[in-house]
Amino acid sequence: MSSIIPTQRLYFYVKQLVSKGYKVGVIKQAESAALKAAGQNKNELFARKLDALYTKSTLIGEEFLTLDPSDGNLDAGDIDSDPGYLVCICELPLTSTKGHANISIVGVQISTGDFIYTSFEDSPLRNKLETYLFHINPAEILIPSNLNKEAETLINNFSLDRSVRIERFNHNVLDTSSVLSHVTEFYTQNKSAVEDIETQDIQQIILTLPALVVSCLSALITYLSSFKLENILRNLKIMKPLETEKSMILSATSLKGLEILRNNSTFSEHRSLFWILNKTLTKFGERLLKFWIAKPLKDLNQIEERLNILTEIMYSDTIVFKVVEKSLTKLPDLERILSCVFHHKCSCSDFINLLQAFAKIRSDLLSISDKVSSEILVPRTKIILTELPELLDDIDRFISNIDIEAARTGDKTKVFHNISMYPAMKKCLDEIGAAEKQLNDFRVDICKVLKLINFRYATVAGQKYLIEVPNSNLRLIPTDWLKISSTKQVSRFRSPQIIKLCNQIDQQKELLIGHAADAWSAFLNDFATYFYKHKRVILYLAELDCYFSLSKVAKEANYCRPHIIDSVEPIFNIHQGWHPIITKIMGEENQFVANNLDMNIQNRCLIVTGPNMGGKSTYVRQIALIAIMAHIGSYVPAESATIPLFDAIYVRMGSDDALAQSKSAFMVEMSETSEILSNATSRSLVILDELGRGTSTNDGTAIAYATLEYILSEIKCCTLFVTHYPPVVELEKHYPENVSIVHMGYILKDNEDDLNDIETVTFLYNVVSGVSKKSYGINVAALAGIPKDVLLEAQKISQLTEFRSIIKRNIKSLMQKFASLSC
Asked: Which residues does the UniProt record annotate as the domain DNA mismatch repair proteins mutS family (predicted)?
């Protein structure tokens, strides 16, 4: 199958094909007509070569930075969206434990230069692998062809949900000697590809990495070499572990259940926590904020530092923050342009945008340097604002060598001021100048032939140096002149000398274009040696952007500064807290009902009961979101909040099956609960919503009871447990100091006058001490439009079942009393 597309729309269709998961190659003519005519193969076909190769993760270059966002045929967000991570996954099954495996992940985002890795042991359900994939959100996954079934199934399902491209490779990841040799050779053969790589024992650095991480690196090197993008991997010093001691990794279950990065309805960022907190001014700031939200801190000093910066931005009168915020406004995506520069895929106009943006930032910050030293109080902010101009001290050197107007038009043959630095270009220009001088001098001979006093060459349809003669004077034309074109009034000719000189000019211009491209590449290469220094500049700017975003949200929504406590005896108090997402959606006209929370080392478990649709899930989600926001270093939606420093936040909500993985909703629920019980510590926050509802009432009750008892007796962490099961509530009797019971308030209206009517429940959405009488599910069924006959029959069955349950509990209580009297 073939199709024809306009040349100017090539990269639009490349992006369309790539977005569908295809690997797309672009083949271009490798020689020009002018050079071919002067060469030895002028009678052969034009040579062609593979000029570029693209996939979802390698879609980088000037062509994709300049696509028109107003094009109605592009998907929403298609232009500004990042290509995403290329991730390689390798695993080694553990023979000691069936189904378990050691897994390593290495990821690189070509468009930004981010380079990450992690290595871990995972269970047969591959829950950790799923969590890391949620965090990385790859565009393309590279896996060995013999990957185990468990990981293969999970990766396939993950990819189907997000249109992730999968590429398989064949080399043996367990052949450690060949893999190590390949990676070591790569990192030692061209150390000058990046700046700041010391001549140290690179092999020793590689040997400190887990073997599977080295296997991933080997596969990535091989794969990216076919795209000529492998240099992004050269600096091992910037490869960061995905998980650190100072931050927590929110599980995939928590990210989904709390709608942290995207909602569960349309799977877009709209109506997520990220949507609430994102008021960033730049694309690179937006990326960093998303990273912060998905990986909350567990280091008190870093949290307090962020809070101090937000406080200073919100309440300081200094002009410094106004100047910095204005500098961030309308910046291009510097991170992506910088990466294009590194890969020599940047246009002149984008590069000059980058330089001018850097220059303006430097100029703005130098103008307020005195005020930074005297008026900024938080050390971190002062360090950033002081270092930024220093890191950009080389920018003027690059700007001074560029003709800005020529750069704007993209003419690389005229872009450099000092052409003597590029001898090949200078030689071409000298040859062109000499030929043009000869053409100019040849006008004297033309005047003699045509018996003219003066003569000027004509230019028609782009053809220069034409001798235009009225048709009445054609008798004067020498026989060796070549007729080029004619009209009724005139004819146009070129003499053999002019033809020769024009061919020389055309050939030299073609050579000039090639030499200019080489010179431009060398110029970009010079700039790219400072890639990691300029990358640091962008990270600083992104950090400032995140602070401005969080401070703006806090001020507009009237959030409070949380008090974070790092203690083995945690206090978890929230006064008049509200759900940040729902409150924003409802708007000011529909006021959200604020609620409190009071927990401590003794009273560390809150059992939440109440009617269906009464707000239980919203309440516990609200608590989790407030805790996460505090650990991001953000102000929180409450009048006041005292929050323990948690080492992890685990949330299990909702019921989703995974049929493609042969897992029912209940199996998913149990496996996620298992992960929580295995990993939670006494300093974690655990939230479980209606555990056990995916099976029979007896089994569900038993599992919920046993799980909560295990948390109370063994883990001893802060826990919010939502349930409808009455026996679970009885745990308060066994752990009276540790358990509190609340329910969501409501008003019940009994229809005493009409026994054949359904009782009416009005939800108050406030948290009230004590156990809810019932769940009032029939009332919710009525709201859903279930036929009244069905509802009345259900009400009778419910009353009968409740009566039987009461009798059973009373009999059990009497038997226990009788047994105690007998003893």
From this structure: 684-700
